[in-house]
Amino acid sequence: MPLPSALPDFRIGARTYRSRLLVGTGKYSDFDQTRRALDASGAEIVTVAIRRTNIGQNAGEPNLLDVLPPERYTILPNSAGCYSADDAVRTLRLARELLDGHTLCKLEVLGDPHTLYPNMAETLRAAETLVRDGFEVMVYCSDDPIMAKQLEAIGCVAVMPLASLIGSGMGILNPWNLQIIISNATVPVIVDAGVGTASDAAIAMELGCDGVLMNTAIAAARDPVLMASAMKKAVEAGREAFVAGRMPKKLYSAEPSSPGVGLIAPAGKAA
Q1: Please, is 37 exposed, middle or buried when counting C-beta atoms within 10 Å of its C-beta (0-12, 13-18, 19+)?
Q2: Given this model, what pLDDT does residue 243 score?
Q3: What is the pLDDT of residue 66?
Q4: What totals of helices (H) and strands (E) does the chain contain, helices first?
Q5: Which of 101, 198, 210, 243 could cysteine-pair with 230, CB 3.0–4.6 Å?
Q6: pLDDT recorded at residue 251
Q7: Where are the beta strands (DSSP E) in 169-265?
């Protein structure tokens, strides 16, 4: 009999998902590679940058929704490329119209084009407007525990602190802040940005994150489809390890892994 999975009941807003891996759709060589990588990832939530990807706003251009049908995936429109609250709100309202009233969105307000670090003052302002407007807001943010709690208080359905800078592949640079955010949150905490390889995703999940969102780590790999498969396994393994509970670390406290009783006595000695 298979063991029960540690992964069900991943709830975002009003919906429940099995996969805790969320993936982006940018930087692939073409839509076919995008589709194959997403298939391999097992992801159910797929984020789309409205300012960079056509989902119907540009007539006559290839439409991403032709290869990623909304009946199979939850399309998560995001405001990547926005540098003010007003631009982010306008972009996500457009996405809601294009997706027939879809309210789940990823809010992202950047501070500058070099680091792509979040502008938290503008992010808070945009979050307040979007929540009032009926959006279910998943929000990209700094790894500041106070900011994360303020976003939760505004009504965001998930907080998404960066592990390191977008596209850097540097992994989790501040696990302590992430653990503070996780321990204080009553909404899902999803690491967003900075993951470079499968071990980074596993570490995020072992810390207790509810999920991991990534794009460049898969799309910029030598073999994106194979990396997507690796990320799927890493997220699942990390979550199961977190639920199982790791053994305590013991410095200079070695003990045998086998029982010490009933040993066979050395030759010439009584047992």
Answers
A1: buried
A2: 94
A3: 73
A4: 8, 10
A5: 198
A6: 77
A7: 190-192, 211-214
List the structure tokens of 185. 């949150």
Phi, psi dihedral angles at 130 (to 5 degrees): -65, -40
Whether the pLDDT of residue 67 is over 80: the answer is no
Place of tokens 């009999």: 1
Q: In what order do the strands lie in the sheet with 21-24?
A: 158-161, 136-141, 104-107, 74-78, 45-49, 21-24, 211-214, 190-192
Per-residue pLDDT of 231-253, as tens digits, reads: 999 999 999 999 999 888 887 76
Q: What is the DSSP letter of 66?
A: G
* Residue that the structure tokens 């302002």 belong to: 125
Distance from C-alpha of 12 to C-alpha of 230, rounded to nearest angstrom: 24
Helix (H, G, I), strand (E, B) or coil at 138: strand
Which one is catalytic: 27, 106, 232, 269?
106
- What pTM value is reported for the model? 0.85
- Residue type present at position 133: D
Cβ contact 142:161 at 8 Å: yes
pLDDT class of 23 with cuts at 50, 70, 90: very high
Q: What is the rounded CA–CA span in Å between residue 127 and residue 104? A: 12
- Residue 63 token pair: 């439409």
What Rg do the C-alpha atoms of the chain give, in angstroms?
21
Q: Which of 60, 64, 58, 10 is nearest to 32 (CA)?
A: 64
> Which segments within the chain are labelled E, that is strand?
10-12, 15-17, 21-24, 45-49, 74-78, 104-107, 136-141, 158-161, 190-192, 211-214
Spacing of C-alpha 130 from chain mean position: 21
Find the DSSP H helices in the chain: 31-41, 85-98, 120-132, 145-154, 175-184, 198-207, 216-219, 224-244
Round to whole Å and give the CA distance between 99 and 2: 38
